[in-house]
Structures are given as structure tokens and as C-alpha cells.
Amino acid sequence: MKKYFLLFLALNTIVPAWAQVDNESLKLKLNESGSHYFQATFLNQVWLRTTENNPGTTVEGNLESQSTDIGLRRTRIQMFGQITDRTFIYFQFGQNNFNAQYNSTSNRKIAPFFHDALGEYRISDKNQLKMGGGLSIISGLSRFSQPSIGTITTMDVPVFAQTTVDQIDQFSRKLSVYARGQIGHWDYRYILSDPFPITSNGQTPPALAPVSNFALKGHNLQHQGYLIYQFFDHDAHTTPYMTGTYLGTKKIVNIAGGFIYQKNAMWNKAAATSDTTYQNMAHWAIESFVDIPLNKEKHSALNAYIGYFNTNYGTNYLRYNGVMNPANGTTATSANSISGQGTVYGNSYPMFGTGSVVYTQIGYLLPSKNASMSNRWMPYASATLASYDRLNGFSNNTFNAGINYFIQGHKSKLSLDFQNRPSFQVNQGELVKGQRLNSVTLQFQLFI
């Protein structure tokens, strides 16, 4: 009885404290002013989806040309806080891409893991210089390489911008030390990362081949850098994550550039020789992002982005990927599909490769007499225009269009998304374009 009484007292002490700062968040006040705090957030994204599958797709042994599935795209818990005047701590725990086919031949109960665990110290009086380290998504390439997934405009992010996801990182996170800050109109970050070996990603590494893949031997640190010029307001700077849309509450117009470089990250072996060739991985991007209010009386807003990505993974590198794949097998063989490029079944398509990508999106927060973000609508469209060396000049374009219904801002929203993607086959040794395939997804997001 004494234990239960002490627990009751503890709960009655702690729970009210989480509401001391405001009524909009679970925030524990650590000092009288609230400048020192610790906060928790929770996010869940549920998908109901129907997908036209790639030719030859099987689901648990049966050929399926179409799949309908329900899944958890992301389930996350964030815990972070300013625990002293200059010290910040951040954790994120959760799981991704959890549907009926997740780990379909193994243990489905191993999904959750730590995404982030970092500490940061502010050296300057304001945000001019912060230094930190730990497990983090902080990246040098693009704002979409480190997206705040609870605030994105489109239903999902352009995953190709997370260039090594689940290859030499942990769901885009790496063990890193970094410096970041905001000086005048400039926002910068530099990151030194220690990538994971490809052998620890849970998949069988591809054999040495004339096309490049991540090297199984050797280890080098990775350098990343990102520089933004902000014409008006600065992006939020609490965490390294970058906001998708502020829904008219900020005036953001910027241009930015970034890079990722890792020496001898890739290797290949010419078919006619026994020599192994190591190649550097080098990506760079330039981009522009606009997120502004349009009419203050009607509370409308514009979100727009365009970016050019030059991705170099070595000779003819190509990797298929399918977000929360609804299938788990294929009858396709190396004779009728592109060999050695990853999963070809379900909703996958060539997402990563040596070449170039132009990505653009636009969203419009429709006018309303309602000043709050309740019962608001935001249609959007996006295009990923990729040209990868291994596809022999064929375009590899993916298009999305949809609409967000903000029940209460990003805290509670519905998103309906239509995607049209490419497919490719091999016919008598020649690469040919297959039919274009579609998927429709309804997402329900809850975020507190």
C-alpha cells in the first residue's frame, strides 16, 4: 500500500507540471521562467492504400497485380529539452513502414528503435554557433534530407533525398558530430559522420559486379555541409529537423546548397579483369524554398520548392525502393528485370542512382475566414524527374497530387494522395519501359 501511495503522490506532482508552460504541449518546466524545459511529443501516421503492383509481384506466394494494405508509416516519440541555458538534449524513438508484410518471414515485433539520441551545446549568446553530437539525421544535402515529417506539405517526403537510407545509416541517421548556426541572413551546418558498414543493414550485400555498390571493405568518415541564405525569416532552429510548411505563420524565402562526400564508399569490379576499383560517393544539390502567407485577411498561404540533385554513387549504381512495400516476393528473374538493384516487387521503382534529379512541389493553403488552422484545406502536387545512368537515357519520373484536410493543423489531419510511377523490364537483354502504375493512399496523422 505504501508503494501505491507514493506512486499516487508522484503522479499528482508530475502530471500537473507537464502543463505548466502551455496547454498546447506536454512540457515540463525545469525553472521558474520556463526557459529550461523538457518536452515530449507523439506522432502516428496511419495509411490505407491501394497499389498497382509491379509485374510478377507475389504476396505470400500468390501472384497479385494489385494490393490493398493498412499500415503505420511512422510511429514516433520525441523527447527533448533545454536543460540548462546552453545545453539541449534530444531523443526520438519509434518505428516505420509497419504493415502486414513487415518482416513477413521473421519476427514482426522488432521494429521500434532509437532514431536520434544527441546532445548539443550553444557556444554563442544566440543561435550563431551550436555544436553537438550523437545519433542524428542532420545532413548536408537538402532540407528534405532532414525533414520534419510531422509538418510536410505533401503526404510523404521525397525519399531519394535521404541518399543512403538503410544502407550505411540507420533510417537516415548516422553517428555524427556537427556545428550549426544562424548568422545574419545565413543558416549553416557542417557534419562529420561515421557511417555504418553495409554489412550491418540486415540484408545480403550484393556481390562485386561491374556496377558500383557500397564497399564491404574499408571505412572512411563522411563529410557533409549545408548553407542557406534566408531573405526574410529564419527556419526554426530548435532541432536539426527542417519544417515542411509553417502554414502561413512565417515568411520563408531562401536559396540553399549542400553536399555529401565519402572517400572510397563504393566499389566495383570490371567483368574482364580481377581488379577491384574503389570510388568516392559525392552528392551535391542546390534548391530554393518558399513558404509565405499570401492574404492575411483570408489566411491563405503558398508553399513551393524546387531542387536539383547531382547524385554520384559510382559507376551505374541503381537501387529500387518501395515505401512500406505491400508485397514480399516476385517471379521476376535477372533475365527479365534489372539485376542487382534491390527489391523489384510491389510498389518499388528506381529511387536512388548515379545521375541527376529535379524535384519540385507546390501547395496552396486555401483562403478561409477562419484564422485558426481548424477545418482548412491544402491541395498540393509534386514531381520527381530523375535521370539515372543505368537506365540508358530513359526518364524515371514520378508524380504525386493530393490534398490535406487540417482538422486541427498538423496535430490532426487527413491526406489523400495519388501517385503515378514508372516501371522497367528487360526484354531479350534490352531495357524497356513498362506501363506506368498508380497508387492511392489515405493518411490520418495525429501529432501532439
Question: How would you describe this structure to a colleague?
Answer:
The structure is a single chain. The protein is built from one helix and 25 strands. With 448 residues, it is mainly beta. The strands form four sheets. Strands 2-5-6-7-8-9-10-12-13-14-15-19-20-21-22-25 form a 16-stranded antiparallel barrel. Strands 4-3-17 form a three-stranded antiparallel β-sheet, with no helix packed on it. A hairpin with a 6-residue loop joins strand 13 (252-269) and strand 14 (276-295). The radius of gyration is 23 Å and the shape is globular. The model is unreliable at 13-21 (pLDDT under 50).
Work out the radius of gyration: 23 Å
**Model regions low in confidence, pLDDT < 50 over at least 5 residues:** 13-21
Based on Cα principal axes, name the global outline. globular
- Largest sheet composition: 16 strands, antiparallel, barrel
What spatial order of strands do you see in the largest sheet?
2-5-6-7-8-9-10-12-13-14-15-19-20-21-22-25
Taking the alpha carbons of the first and last residues, their distance comes to 34 Å
| Oligomerization status of the protein chains | single chain
| Number of distinct helices | 1
